[in-house]
Amino acid sequence: MNIMLFHSAYGPRPAVRAAADRLRAAGHEVWTPDLFEGRIFETVEEGMARKDEIGKEELLKRAVLAAAPYSDRGLVYAGFSLGASLAQTLALGDHKARGLLLLHGTSDIAESASADELPVQLHVAEPDAFETDDWLNAWYLQMRGAGAEVEIYRYPGAGHLYTDPDLPDHDAEAAEATWQVALGFLDSLGTDQPAAR
User: Fold this and answer.
1) Taking the mean position of all CA atoms in its chain, how far away is CA 153?
2) Whole-angstrom distance, CA of residue 60 vs CA of residue 87
3) CA dist., res. 149 & res. 9, Å (int)
4) Is omega for the bond preceding 127 within 30 degrees of 0, making it cis?
5) Which of 148, 86, 79, 165 has its CA nearest to residue 113?
């Protein structure tokens, strides 16, 4: 698979590179665009301040420009938290998208969104202050209404960004379980070129 992997509000941390390396070792081609111009943050508050400083529209523009040269290959969009939000937006707007892998985050869904048979997998902590039960229930129904094929995996007791071993949120068992399931998901997408959605 060709995977576009977006970092979280913490920036392009070592965990993002490690995730990309793991995906490459499994036979995937992976791009990890740096939307924060190299800046890495130690707290979510600092990262969110940077996100607000850049602005939502500019971040989305950077993500689109990063993905554009590869979109004809049929991308799987993926991301961590904020990056998952961006990945979702791009996948729903790309009729050639092969899949959507969301780690720790989701985004609003436009009423006009169409995700006909798009395979989607979401991994989140339980509970998660950023992805509450009410929000996830509504999100699931909206994604299904748009035509997506959605799987949700929840990890009790894990912190929000539990796949990053250098953050307090880290949960090694939940992280390993996530990657095992995610790699199976990517393998299930096959290697044939996508049909237009």
Assistant:
1) 14
2) 9
3) 27
4) yes
5) 148
* Domains and their CATH numbers in the chain: 2-188 (3.40.50.1820)
Single-letter residue type at 23: L
* Number of residues that make up the chain: 197
Helical segments of the chain, H only: 14-25, 44-54, 56-67, 82-92, 133-145, 172-188
Integer Cα distance of 35 and 89 in angstroms: 15
What is the distance of C-alpha 168 from the center of its chain?
A: 20
CA atoms within 13 A on the CB side of 80: 28
The Cα 77–Cα 2 span in angstroms is 9
Q: Which of 81, 178, 60, 59 is nearest to 130 (CA)?
A: 81
Phi-psi category of residue 104: left, alpha or beta, with phi > 0 → left and psi -120 to 50 → alpha: left
Q: How many CA atoms lie within 13 A of 99 on its CB side?
A: 26
- pLDDT for 195 equals 44
pTM of the model: 0.95
Residues 111-160 have pLDDT tens digits of 888 888 999 999 999 999 999 999 999 999 999 999 999 999 999 999 99
